[in-house]
Amino acid sequence: MKKYLSTLSIISLALLLVSCNDTKKANYSNQTDVEVKTTIYTASNHPGKKIMESKCYVCHNPSTDHDSRIAPPMVAIKSHYLSNDTSKEEFTNAVWSFVKQPSKDKTKMRGAVKRFGVMPYQPFSEEDIKLISDYMYDFKIDEPEWFKEHIEEESNGKMKHRNSGKKDESSASAKSSLRDSRPEGEQSVKANTPVIEAKNML
Ligand code: HEC
User: Fold this and answer.
1) Minimal CA–CA distance to 142: which of 113, 119, 168, 124?
2) Which in 48, 97, 195, 200 has the greatest CB count within 10 A?
3) How remote is the CA of residue 92 from the centroid of ligand 1, in Å?
4) What mean pLDDT is reported for the chain?
5) For a pocket test of ligand 1, which of 57, 60, 61, 116 has the largest count of ligand atoms closer than 8 A to its C-beta?
6) pTM reported for the whole predicted model
7) 89 CB contacts (<8 Å, ≥6 apart)?
8) How far apart, in Å, do the first and last CA atoms of the chain sit?
9) pLDDT tens for residues 23-35?
């Protein structure tokens, strides 16, 4: 009888542990939900960066040279879709409006349509496009070295090279992609130091 009782208590203890575990899990997942919502993204941990690199870089990558391209680099899109006072919401809506149904009528990049044809429709989700746009708007993105000169030349100076990032001052990896065209001496110390950290992270 004693043995029976202790087996019983072991079983109930085990059951108790399992159910405790369950509650812990539930709490844990609640906590992570909250964490996701309150995360302040940096250039390196922003989810939009990864999505952009996996879904858009097939065609829009910054490393292919000008003559071998099949689509403009992402920075070209950023430059055409931003003006001095474009809000993040306007930027995101404009990108989504095109991507959800690409057409010649909606283009802001006639030269690109002429050269490459209209972007083929792909079933991207609005959520992904929002994250990508958020990343592009907030951070300086990787761009080809030839781009700045190219856009100003092609548009006779009318189109501005735009690749600022509101948050990149505080982010290490944003610096690694920063192509600062200013001479060494004019670059701020702040802009130079974090590059070392970014290299160590690789
Ligand atoms: C299969 C190749 C391909 C992929 C993948 C691709 N694009 Fe494009 N995209 C193009 C081409 C080609 C153009 C240039 C022609 C044009 O503007 O329609 C373009 C142009 C654009 C434009 C500018 C449209 C305009 O004319 O105003 C936006 C915005 C855009 N892409 C967003 C994206 C985003 C965001 C992704 C990833 C989620 C993506 N594209 C993935 C081929 C692609």
Assistant:
1) 168
2) 48
3) 14
4) 79
5) 60
6) 0.71
7) none
8) 63
9) 545 555 555 555 5
